[in-house]
Design a protein that fits this description.
This protein has nine helices and seven strands, in the order βαααααβαβαβαβαββ. It has 272 residues and is an alpha/beta fold. It folds into two domains: 166 residues, 3-Layer(aba) Sandwich (Rossmann fold); 85 residues, no CATH class. A five-stranded parallel beta sheet has the order 3-2-1-4-5, sandwiched between helices. Helix 7 runs parallel beside helix 8. The chain is elongated, with a radius of gyration of 20 Å. The two termini are 15 Å apart.
């Protein structure tokens, strides 16, 4: 029986990861743009360079923001003092605080809200049966920002455990397993980055990956669709919910969620 379902936050629940990197790149350019080899001369050039720098930030995969800023500047041959770099990190922190505080229901990944509503109904049904479904979030975001965003979206009360970057995702998943006595086979995690998949593999839990976006491009993550087509492969609780049209389904290939049209009565194949 599937007893726990977890989610990353940025680009899994909301379309926010892209803006994280864009805002970071924006603060770097506001401070150091005139020192770049080809400084942007107008708004169009600034936005083009902003997207390019955002991609660099993603590629570097450095977690510490001060070090990440240093590495980006080194890529462009820009020198800066530690005080200047710390100023950029501070201003980025302020910008991202304001961004998370403004998140609304229009920020959801397409299909997530309905998916969560169905999970909540299953959770309530299980509670009446003396069973459980633990919902949790394991994110790389700062916890205060994450909590503020969830309260602003009106969904904080649906999650039993919310953890940010005070722990890595492997540690968070293990915490959920230990605190609720859940085995890896009975946990499912949704994410969009390699770090999410790696954490799932390390803990042995099930994983569904959503396609990550490239900074500066439109959101391309796959939709959350038809919770029953996922849950019925783990237990029978989903079958108590009104039967859902089988004209659309999901299939898992190598940990990546792909959408496809299914023949009537056909079922998705699940892989760990």
């Amino acid at each position: 029986m599937l007893e726990a379902i977890g989610f990353d936050f940025d680009d899994t629940i909301t379309k926010s990861q892209n803006m994280n990197w864009i805002l970071f790149a924006r603060e770097i350019l506001k401070k150091f743009g005139d020192r770049f080899p080809n400084p942007p001369r107008n708004k169009v050039e600034f936005e083009q360079l902003e997207r390019e720098v955002a991609r660099k930030i993603v590629e570097l995969r450095q977690r510490i923001k001060t070090a990440k800023t240093m590495d980006v500047l080194k890529e462009y041959g820009v020198s800066a003092s530690l005080a200047e770099i710390q100023s950029v990190v501070h201003d980025y922190g302020t910008s991202i605080d304001e961004y998370y505080a403004r998140l609304t229901s229009s920020s959801y990944v397409k299909g997530f809200k309905k998916f969560l509503e169905q999970l909540v109904r299953i959770k309530e049904l299980r509670a009446r049966q003396g069973k459980r479904l633990v919902l949790f979030i394991a994110s790389g975001a700062d916890l205060p920002n994450l909590e503020a965003a969830l309260y602003n979206l009106g969904i904080r009360n649906h999650f039993d455990i919310v953890r940010g970057n005070e722990k890595n995702k492997t540690e968070i998943m293990r915490e959920v397993m230990v605190s609720h006595n859940i085995t890896p086979d009975n946990m499912l995690f949704f994410g969009d980055q390699a770090v999410d998949h790696e954490a799932a593999k390390e803990t042995g839990c099930r994983y569904i990956g959503l396609k990550p976006r490239v900074p500066g491009q439109d959101h391309s993550t796959e939709e959350f669709r038809r919770v029953e087509t996922i849950l019925e492969h783990y237990d029978t609780v989903g079958k108590k919910i009104k039967r859902i049209d089988r004209s659309f389904g999901t299939e898992l290939r190598d940990g990546v969620l792909a959408n496809r049209t299914l023949r009537k009565r056909s079922r998705p194949k699940l892989m760990a």
